[in-house]
Amino acid sequence: MPNLDPRAMKSLMAKMGIKSTDLNATRVVIELPDREILIESPQVTKIEAQGTVSFQVAGTVTEMDRNVKLDVTEDDVKLVSESTGITDEAVVRKALEDAQGNIAKAIVELEKQRK
After folding, report:
1. Tell me: the pLDDT tens digits for 83-109?
2. Domain 6-65 has what CATH class?
3. Which residues make Cβ contacts (< 8 Å) with residue 48, sequence separation at least 6?
């Protein structure tokens, strides 16, 4: 549809039952199993059509590898160990690594394993 100004395009889309809304986002993060896609200063448009909601995103894209070695501190290991009663440091450290450093998640998972 060449030569349509944005206002006419929006009107035409409304007649077709398509609603679009610009969102004031500061950044968008897409988490994948092996990496993250970070979009800074994004232009985000929410599009609703035929009961389906989709998003159109444009901006400065950065990809980061998620397989970065996590630094688990001795304080974290000690806290989880004291909270769960598990004294095997290797087990506690592995639980923290599996939980990506999330102490609460590591405690919950270790408690599940004990039952």
Report:
1. 999 999 999 999 998 888 899 999 999
2. mainly beta
3. 18, 19, 20, 21
